[in-house]
Specification:
alpha+beta; six-stranded mixed β-sheet; elongated; 2 domains; 319 residues; Arc Repressor Mutant, subunit A; 13 helices
Length: 319
């Protein structure tokens, strides 16, 4: 029997960029869901959604009031808001405007709407889809909400992306649907990149870790060859730190010890292989550097809470 390709050791699909690795593993897809233009006073209440959502102000400015937050926020042209957990939000032209329900505004299935003459404000919105593994990866690192204000170095990129997305929607050209999806995917990556610049105030986790230049060499080694039996001394040497300083910094930034991170990354790769491939469990174990299937199975159950065969069985049952 020919074995399916594995995501693991020496795979040509395995990038040496940990950030790309993790987004690929999370199976992140980004979709444009709609938008609106407005003129005059207006306010809209959007209900909470069980997805990561984001919106961008293409033209004008608006006032945002997030559920659970005491202070409102002003979003200017080019600004982006990201909701990492289900929360309702009221967007408005200003205070003291009674909001209409977003469900009513788009009740007839429209994805774009106009309020008033539509001349003063323009907005687009989207959401991020990911599989179960991706939900765990992103839910642990995204805050309740993010406000991205493009700076001097990023404003041109954001402006171009927003203009292209709007143009694709308006022109109705062949391939507009897939072009919009790809542009939205790039927009989400740029949002995360902008968020990475705030790494000093981010919670510990993989997103903060991949943004840390001092840890980057060690992360590239672990992601580039996850089946190798890496030693703490090797990883510390690659990062030009002593063993003790490296271990302390890694735990502070990533939230776990270096070799614990490596084990967790291996198990995430294994989960993807078990769900999507027919490769025998023993072959996956070997690809990840385990000398026996039982040693791998014990590690897998310790990290994920279930056995490799149960993981594969659940994936097949859901098809």
């Amino acid at each position: 029997m020919v074995e399916s390709p594995v995501y693991l050791l020496n795979s040509p699909e395995m990038d040496t960029d940990p950030f790309s690795d993790i987004l690929k593993l999370a199976n992140v897809t980004t979709l444009l869901t709609g938008g609106f233009t407005a003129g005059g006073p207006w306010a809209i209440r959007f209900p909470p959604r069980d997805r990561v959502q984001f919106f961008a102000v293409v033209k004008g400015r608006c006032r945002g009031q997030f559920d659970g937050e005491d202070q409102s926020i002003w979003f200017e042209t080019g600004d982006i808001g990201v909701l990492g957990e289900p929360r309702s939000v009221v967007l408005a032209s200003g205070p003291d405007v009674a909001p209409v329900r977003g469900e009513d505004l788009f009740a007839d299935g429209r994805t774009m709407a106009t309020i008033g003459d539509g001349s003063e404000f323009a907005y687009i919105a989207g959401h991020v889809d990911f599989d179960q593994a991706g939900r765990r990866l992103l839910a642990d690192v995204l805050p309740a909400w993010i406000h991205v204000r493009p700076n001097e170095s990023t404003a041109t990129t954001f402006r171009w992306l927003l203009d292209r997305i709007v143009s694709e929607q308006a022109a109705d050209l062949p391939g507009a649907k897939i072009a919009s999806a790809q542009l939205m995917q790039l927009l989400f990556i740029e949002i995360l990149r902008a968020h990475l610049e705030t790494r000093d105030v981010m919670p510990a986790g993989w997103l903060r870790a991949v943004a840390d230049p001092r840890l980057a060499p060690a992360l590239r080694l672990m992601h580039g060859d996850p089946g190798r039996s890496w030693h703490l001394e090797e990883l510390a040497r690659a990062s030009a730190m002593s063993r003790t300083i490296f271990a302390e910094r890694f735990r502070e930034v990533a939230g776990v010890a270096p070799l614990t991170y490596l084990t967790q990354w291996r198990m995430r790769l294994a989960e993807r292989s078990l769900r999507e491939e027919t490769t025998p469990v023993a072959a996956i174990a070997r690809s990840l550097g385990y000398g026996s299937e039982s040693a791998f199975s014990n590690a897998f159950k310790r990290v994920t809470g279930h056995s490799p065969r149960a993981c594969r069985g659940a994936a097949r049952a859901s098809v």
